[in-house]
Design a protein that fits this description.
The chain is of the alpha/beta class. The chain has three domains: 4-103 and 203-261, Adenylosuccinate Synthetase, subunit A, domain 1 (Adenylosuccinate Synthetase, Chain A, domain 1); 109-197, Orthogonal Bundle (Adenylosuccinate Synthetase, subunit A, domain 2); 267-429, Adenylosuccinate Synthetase, subunit A, domain 3 (Adenylosuccinate Synthetase, Chain A, domain 3), CATH 3.90.170.10. The chain has twelve helices and 18 strands. The protein has helices spanning 16-24, 76-88, 109-122, 134-142, 155-175, 183-197, 204-213, 246-250, 285-293, 312-322, 361-366, 392-405, and strands at 4-8, 29-32, 41-45, 48-52, 65-68, 98-101, 201-202, 218-221, 261-267, 270-272, 306-308, 310-311, 326-330, 340-349, 352-354, 368-375, 409-413, 421-423. The protein has a ten-stranded mixed sheet with strand order 7-6-5-2-8-1-9-13-17-18, with helices on both faces. Helix 3 (109-122) packs across helix 4 (134-142). The radius of gyration is 22 Å and the shape is globular. It starts with a strand and ends in a 7-residue tail after the last strand. Bound molecules: inosinic acid.
């Protein structure tokens, strides 16, 4: 029996929420290991819609342990708001069902201010961040000046750490001619939130080790996608964490052997929010149509997502760099009714055909997709629960994708409803 890591294999928004929920119903522990409340997962259970950002998806199911690992950056105010909102929908959340790693770095109000101010200053070169302070919080973590969850319990040290943090940030603000941050105000905010958030603090690595020894099933829930990975993505138009499954171990305090099956959630076409290269983007009616049919608007920011054809080069790269064992193909039904479909099989760059996305920013912006065309299908694939219910042309599309990306389809999702799923192989039994 394997533990399973679920990661996005494109630019996020691949439909991880439904798959994670489906798998979490069979897991004992669900762990977030990177990112923060920049993520947005929508779960539809018995017709009830739950919108999660920072909370692991297992939280809506009784009897599961939900874990926020050390690799996540935690905005305590956002977390408490989300807990209250989900509780208001009748879900019970207590420190018995939700634990947060005591070594999590915190996102403070200043981080979102810095995030937004920097984006503003970048003008046309903006990254298009979610404005949640994710990048600045990770910067403080790596620079070893972050306030971590455990620091809230150490009054004497907290004051010292806040001094160091403000020493850095106020120097920058002075340089920009902006108002400096006030220590007393930040301390008051931290004092106010500490007693509310500290009950959730735990020694996560130990709890996960315990769960593993007891043979519990652990599900690692990734956020964003491989192409937003700070190392392997379309840098600098990325998020500030490693989104690949390799980080499931480091971001939760388990060894690399703890991750078994790596399921790459993959949309049957491509979308992206925010700026940055997107070789198969469709800036025409077809792109608009895909966006309308797929309801491609951000869960967190409400932004319209950019849409394009399936890019097999990118997904293959994500599979190799992220160790993806199999993919869950989602939103195939959005392609119903198209006469012709296209899949990118290579890039034309400086007169040659290449089969990877180069790392250099200019090259990423210049590559041109080489397409293979497919006959579409007029039948509806929505809600299909077996291969027999799929048109032959849809199966051909899927089989060719498997060949191009060099990984099998483990699971096929045909609507937002959790039962509209075709399971080829149980990832937990891998
Ligand atoms: P940040 O994570 O807020 O710093 O944003 C950096 C980039 O990642 C931007 O292009 C965002 O649009 C993108 N991003 C962050 N979180 C998500 C997500 O959950 N889905 C899709 N894109 C995301």
């Amino acid at each position: 029996m394997a533990n399973v890591a679920v990661v996005g294999s494109q630019w996020g928004d691949e439909g991880k929420g439904k798959i994670v929920d489906w798998l979490s119903s069979r897991a004992d522990v669900v762990v977030r290991f990177q990112g923060g409340h920049n993520a947005g997962h929508t779960l539809v259970i018995n017709g009830v819609v739950y919108k999660l950002s920072l909370l692991p998806s297992g939280v809506v199911r009784p009897g599961k342990l939900s874990v926020i690992g050390n690799g996540v950056v935690v905005d305590p105010w956002a977390l408490l708001r989300e807990i209250e909102a989900i509780k208001a929908q009748g879900v019970e959340i207590t420190p018995d069902s939700l634990i947060v790693a005591e070594n999590c770095p915190l996102i403070l109000p200043l981080h979102s201010t810095v995030d937004k101010a920097r984006e503003e200053a970048r003008g046309a070169n903006r990254i298009g961040t979610t404005g949640r302070g994710i990048g600045p919080a990770y910067e403080d973590k790596v620079a070893r000046r972050a306030i971590r969850l455990c620091d809230l319990a150490d009054e004497a040290l907290l004051g010292e750490k806040v001094d160091q943090l403000l020493f850095h940030h106020n120097a920058l603000l002075r340089g920009l001619g902006a108002a400096e941050l006030d220590k007393a105000e930040l301390m008051a905010q931290l004092h106010e939130v500490a007693p509310k958030i500290l009950p959730y603090a735990a020694v996560v690595w130990e709890r996960l080790d315990e769960a593993r020894r007891q043979g519990k099933r652990i599900l690692f829930e990734g956020a964003q996608g491989a192409m937003l990975d700070v190392d392997h993505g379309t840098y600098p138009f990325v998020t500030s964490s490693n989104t690949v499954a390799g980080n499931a171990a480091a971001g939760s305090g388990m060894g690399p052997g703890a991750v078994g099956h790596v399921l790459g959630i993959t949309k049957a076409y491509t979308t992206r929010v925010g700026s940055g290269p997107f070789p198969t983007e469709l800036l025409d009616e077809t792109g608009d149509l895909i966006g309308q049919r797929g309801r491609e608007f951000g869960t967190v920011t409400g932004r319209k997502r950019r849409c394009g054809w399936f890019d097999a080069v990118l997904v293959r790269q994500a599979i190799k760099t992220g160790g993806i064992t199999g993919i869950a193909l989602t939103k195939l039904d959005v392609l119903d009714g198209f006469q012709e479909l296209k899949v990118c099989t290579g890039y034309r760059y400086k007169g040659e055909i290449i089969h990877h996305l180069p790392a250099a920013q200019t090259a990423q912006a210049e590559v041109e997709p080489v397409y293979e065309s497919f006959e579409g299908w007029s039948e509806s694939t929505q809600g299909a629960r077996s291969w027999a219910e799929l048109p032959a042309t849809a199966i051909k599309y899927i089989r060719r994708i498997e060949e191009l990306i060099e990984a099998p389809v483990t699971l096929l999702s045909t609507s937002p409803e959790r039962d509209d799923t075709i399971l080829v192989k149980d990832p937990f039994e891998d």
